[in-house]
Amino acid sequence: MLLKELLQGLEIKKISGRQEISIENIVYDSRKVTKNSLFICIKGFKTDGHLYIRDAIEKGASAILVEEEVNLGGATVVEIENTRKSMAIIANRFYGEPSKSLDLIGVTGTNGKTSTTYMIKKILETSGKKTGLVGTISNWIGDVKIETDRTTPESLDLQKLFKRMLQENVDCCVMEVSSHSLALDRVEECQFKVGVFTNLTPEHLDFHATLEDYKNAKKKLFYKTVLCNIINIDDEVGKTIYQELRRSTTPMLTYSIKEKADIIAENIVLSIKTVTFDLITPKYKEKVEINIPGIFTVYNALAAIAVCYSMDIGANHIVEGLRSIKGVAGRLEPIEEFADFAVIVDYAHTPDALENVLKSIKKFAKNKLITVFGCGGDRDQTKRPIMGEISGSYSDLTIITSDNPRTENPMEIIAMVEDGIRKTLGKYDIIENRREAIRLALKYAEKGDIILIAGKGHETYQIINDNVFEFDDRKVAVEVAKEEGLI
Ligand SMILES: CC(=O)N[C@H]1[C@@H](OP(=O)(O)OP(=O)(O)OC[C@H]2O[C@@H](n3ccc(=O)[nH]c3=O)[C@H](O)[C@@H]2O)O[C@H](CO)[C@@H](O)[C@@H]1O[C@H](C)C(=O)N[C@@H](C)C(=O)N[C@H](CCC(=O)O)C(=O)O
Ligand SMILES: Nc1ncnc2c1ncn2[C@@H]1O[C@H](COP(=O)(O)OP(=O)(O)OP(=O)(O)O)[C@@H](O)[C@H]1O
Ligand SMILES: N[C@H](CCC[C@H](N)C(=O)O)C(=O)O
Ligand SMILES: [Mg+2]
Fold first, then answer.
1. 176, 205, 214, 447: which has the fewest Cβ within 10 Å?
2. What is the ipTM of this complex?
3. Residues less than 5 Å from ion ligand 4, measured at CB
4. pLDDT digits (tens, 9 = 90+) for 256-290
């Protein structure tokens, strides 16, 4: 595509060099530049893309998009106000506006995005639609898995992925829309059919200055949708978003288990492995059964149902799709090798998630509830004491350990968790090494106990400083139990 075409309609401050040049590739990382690339310079949180322009030109970049004045030859230089936002516009154009041809569903909220997207995918597939998925665990094109390291990819990578989905005849794509992606314009130019709001509780307050900023980032999704917005009105923030969206032209569907809403669940029965409920929609009633425990599974299912209902997917496909789900990796995932006591791995890494999970499983513990968890480094510090207090309140024993300490001192993170747990009567131990923490929990466990290993869920690594080590809670629990002769 010609550079001139890519830049059409953008407010350019200054341009030096030819615009009639063919752009074969677009990149925002100088290390990925190939011949005839457009290199987009982004001022980041760690470094600044403008520092790598020379490097990019040497590798063959023929055009550079900048947001600060640079004077050098060898490539066309285009100066613009906001390169991150412009990248989304250019990427959408370069890949042929792919989201317009997909039924794109966006799910946002603090907790439940991954779980809800997997439910939606399963229902859509049951109804015969080839479905793509973009999210935390991995991306999918039908049943082909694509590794990812972001929940919501950078706009360029996202548009490229959408194009690939179209080439592979995908009908619908369901994606998690993180607050970072909304704040950093990763989903600008995406045309969503349906948007979902699951809930909002404190998280990522290292990135968003206030809870209000966090909410405002999430809210942006609902002004990008054309078919329907789906809102959990049992959530306090959901209620306010619902009120605000009444002025919008996009129709809305609400869901609830407590209040009058469009999609509701009644007669909920929770067991240690499943949930069942009576589904009531404006058009029909059905019995629903899902093989994932916890009251929040009902919420995630209602969100998924509302999406499919708004897309006119038949009730039979909804019920069958939900029934066929075997679980979502690292979300209340039971480790089957254990018989006398239960070991469950879960991705709860926010106060709200941890509280919900502990509440859900505590009632099924015939004996003690033992929790092993820590908090991630280089992330929101305010949640650490709160999570400590929650674990101390619900668990008979907490073993505080490391999550992904990243560049922080693990013992300092643990001390912040300990500040919270000390406010409770809950017993606790501190074992910084996560493998050893899991070992101790297994050694303490007795018949009828439940061990919850929280925070890392599906993750198969642990990040310590800038090193990524292999670490999977599910595998480690089994390995350690074998070493101890417990299984
Ligand atoms: C805060 C944040 O989201 N940062 C993301 C952002 O980084 P950044 O813009 O600060 O980039 P930077 O590292 O400072 O580099 C600036 C620019 O220089 C370029 N560069 C850098 C080095 C070089 O040699 N050459 C070069 O061109 C980089 O490619 C970049 O364009 O853009 C990068 C490239 O896309 C992302 O990898 C990076 O994610 C970081 C690693 C991250 O941890 N993000 C998390 C917080 C995140 O986004 N999480 C949400 C999930 C939240 C949830 O699920 O609750 C997500 O959607 O994944
Ligand atoms: N609707 C919900 N409300 C509260 N907690 C939930 C809900 N659904 C799941 N959880 C809890 O939150 C954890 C994370 O769930 P999930 O991965 O679905 O959320 P997410 O929004 O995708 O998280 P992330 O922001 O990390 O991508 C689960 O392991 C579970 O403990
Ligand atoms: N999407 C979340 C995941 C946190 C998972 C937890 N294991 C951690 O590393 O803090 C984040 O990037 O903040
Ligand atoms: Mg997720």
1. 447
2. 0.96
3. 113-114, 136, 176
4. 999 999 999 999 999 989 999 999 999 999 999 99
